[in-house]
Design brief:
6 helices, mainly alpha, three-stranded antiparallel β-sheet
């Protein structure tokens, strides 16, 4: 039973496709010869006569107008003819008819939907690229920030180690070198004049470290 139904439907579809081709060829010929029709019904009448001859059996204009597949072709032809006549400054006698206006509205809505969909896809793609760019920039900043922090920490550690070594050395030779905390200088105890070994400009970072760690170093300066 199902096979019979499918076979019949295929038969109907094949017939409609064949008729649609004949209709399309006729409309193409009508356009080429610049045939004019006052309204879609007149076009359907002329086309029905043509189909009756081409198919070898009667065809009614009402059949063409009831079938949505055929009617779209007819109304589309009239809409294009309407636009062409307007461009040429000619009246056509069928502009403003409901079927033509309805077709034009559907066509405009379809075009608007396609354009909106295209813009939506374009917008989403643009936003995706912006997000990727922001993520890359954030990653670069984070990576660069971590590297900079590590570099600063390493310098601070090396500075602390250097100060610790210098403090140990000064403690060892304190009989020979005076650590002048007030003047932030290192002075040679053996000399009375020109006895500054390290002046304030160079020694001040060490004294800053020394004051910050005085409690840890047991109050020595």
């Amino acid at each position: 039973m199902n096979n019979n139904i499918n076979t019949f439907k295929k038969f109907q579809d094949d017939n409609q496709d064949a008729r649609a081709k004949i209709i399309q060829n006729y409309l193409h010929l009508a356009k080429k010869r610049k045939l004019g029709f006052p309204h879609v019904t007149a076009l359907a009448e002329a086309l029905a006569e043509h189909l009756s001859i081409a198919e070898g059996k009667p065809c009614s204009k009402s059949t063409l107008l009831r079938n949505q597949k055929y009617k779209v072709k007819l109304v589309g032809f009239m809409a294009v003819a309407n636009i062409t006549n307007h461009k040429n400054g000619k009246g056509d006698g069928f502009s403003g008819r409901p079927e033509v206006e309805n077709f034009k509205e559907r066509l405009e809505i379809t075009n608007l939907r396609r354009e909106n969909e295209r813009l939506k896809i374009l917008y989403q793609e643009t936003e995706r690229r912006k997000e990727e760019e922001r993520n890359r920039e954030s990653e670069v900043l984070l990576t660069g920030g971590d590297a900079e922090r590590r570099s600063i920490e390493e310098l601070q550690n090396r500075h602390a180690l250097t100060c610790q070594a210098l403090h140990a050395l000064l403690t060892y030779i304190e009989d020979f070198v005076l650590v002048d905390a007030d003047g932030e200088r290192f002075i040679d105890r053996a000399k009375l004049r020109n006895n500054v070994i390290v002046e304030h400009r160079l020694a001040s970072p060490f004294f800053d470290w020394l004051r910050a760690h005085r409690g840890i170093l047991g109050g020595k300066s």
